Amino acid sequence: MNPAAAPPQGAQPAQALQAADAAHHLHPFSDPQQLREHPPRMIVHGEGVRIRDAQGHEILDAMSGLWCVNLGYGRVDLVEAARAQMHELPYYNTFFQTTTRPAAQLAAELAGIAPAGMRQVFFTESGSTANDTMVRMVRRYWDLMGQPRRKILISRRNAYHGSTLGAASLGGMPDMHAQGDLPLPGFEHIEQPYRLQLGRPGESEADFGLRAASWLEQRILELGAERVAAFVMEPVQGAGGVIVPPAGYAREIQRICRRHGVLLVSDEVICGFGRLGHWFGCQHEHIGIEPDLLTFAKGVTSGYLPLGGVLVGPRVAEVLGTRGGEFAHGFTYSGHPVCCAVALANLHALRDEQVLERVRTGLAPYLQRRFAKLGQHELAGDVDGLGMTAALVLWRDKRRREPFPPEAAAGLRCRDACFDAGVVMRAVGSRMIIAPPLVSTEADIDQMIERIGTALDATLLGLRRDGWMA
Ligand code: PXG
Fold first, then answer.
1. Residue 369 CA, ligand 1 centroid: distance in Å
2. Pairing relationship of beta strands 228-233 and 426-428 according to DSSP bridges
3. Best substitution site from 133, 160, 192, 307 to test ligand 1's pocket, by max atoms within 8 Å of Cβ?
4. Measured from the CA of 238, which atom of ligand 1 is nearest?
């Protein structure tokens, strides 16, 4: 830990700030009452793959913040890029025939690494607004194509695509839809390719993949292809619980989209920028698709500053670029120069330090091998993962695959036990997931696995003590 970690002079003690936070700060996806009862843990420092809380506990961040700190904490090159750009030009916009150096350069460099012939990018400040932008582009594309009835976007149940009205409608999270009359009209959802829940006894992975993809074709035919604008999917569903699609699923989805003229969109907010060992998750051989549009955020700056965007492939770019005139859409911070400067430094580090290659050929296989061992724990089974993502399932009775009832709160218990053991893991129901920084060493991974093992032991003890397990 570096010496700059000491709290600045005159800073309020952490406990007073935690109380102030509980009193005044409304947190995302949090119950305010619960927060008042249990003030949030305050994170004060980060270095490499480790964070530290105000009480001085060192914690391995196996979630890369929220799936974003791909290069880890404390990167002087990223900080320096921000500082230099702040001095030079802290803000200027990209509306009204203006641009800035970092925005122009980042657009060109993204065009250089983008898949599927994508040569153009629209900048936003987040993944949610990237997806909203994509929805507006898709609908505008079909208007300009003279097919104004093609307005429906289809995505998958349990998908997370963001929290704005459009992105939350696009997403398939039942709890989000239950608040505020979502989804908006024009969004449809099919089941996710989750074999553990939806696979049939004796059905092969390949057969399940084809069957799961066929749900898209069924829905297109029910709705009428002439009304379906686009299908949107993450290569690996992240917040949905690290749901890795069966081999062949994504390619079959692409065939179905092409057969019916439907645009295919890859939401790469989590899977982009090395998470699966490639610049974009759709390039992983297990996925293998060439989307028409691609949304990104998070890892493009390793989370150091907010930035997102939409990469546009030739089919859509040609129409929007030549027929449409002005696209009436944009954000004050579209192409923010400081965020773009940090993104450039991030891309250069990923490239120059050969991070993707290392993930692909060494670190990801190592993570998957080590993580698989956790499946031997009495509480854990059905280990899965791809690239630098991994998940396991907590079972009440592993052999009979008996799940815990929600009241047992097995996932949340395990998440808390992980914190206590010094590792951040995320709970999605009873699925426990990780997405470690791409710069983790094998020793870091070993330590993460060891601490997760300790947390599983503690969770098991607690569940037994409270009568949830024999
Ligand atoms: N698409 C995907 C695939 C995401 O994972 C978004 C869009 C929205 O991005 P913004 O930048 O608007 O947050 C996301 C965000 C979690 C968690 O708990 C996941 C996300 C955000 C917050 C929490 O797993 N993903």
1. 27
2. unpaired
3. 160
4. 5
Structure tokens of 339?
A: 């965020």
Query: One digit per residue, pLDDT tens: the chain, 470 residues?
Result: 444 445 554 467 888 998 889 889 999 999 988 888 888 899 999 999 999 999 999 999 999 999 999 999 999 999 999 999 999 999 999 999 999 999 999 999 999 999 999 999 999 999 999 999 999 999 999 999 999 999 999 999 999 999 999 999 999 999 999 999 999 999 999 999 999 999 999 999 999 999 999 999 999 999 999 999 999 999 999 999 999 999 999 999 999 999 999 999 999 999 999 999 999 999 999 999 999 999 999 999 999 999 999 999 999 999 999 998 999 999 999 999 999 999 999 999 999 999 999 999 999 999 999 999 999 999 999 999 999 999 999 999 999 999 999 999 999 999 999 999 999 999 999 999 999 999 999 999 999 999 999 999 999 999 999 999 98
Any residues with Cβ below 6 Å from ligand 1, and which?
Answer: 66, 126-128, 131, 160-162, 234, 238-239, 267, 269-270, 297, 308, 426
In this structure, are residues 424 and 418 in contact, taking their beta carbons and an 8 Å threshold? yes
375 CB neighbour count, 10 Å cutoff: 14
The DSSP code for 73 is B
DSSP class of residue 277? S
DSSP codes joined into one string, 202-268: T--HHHHHHHHHHHHHHHHHHH-GGGEEEEEE-SSBTTTT-BPPPTTHHHHHHHHHHHTT-EEEEE-
Q: List domains and CATH numbers for the chain.
A: 15-74+355-465 (3.90.1150.10), 77-352 (3.40.640.10)
Q: In terms of Cα–Cα distance, which of 386, 435, 155, 433 is closest to 285? A: 386
Q: The pTM is what?
A: 0.96
The length of the chain in residues reads 470
Whether 22 contacts 38, CB under 8 Å? no
Q: Which of 164, 138, 129, 139 is nearest to 333 (CA)?
A: 129
SS3 label, residue 173? coil
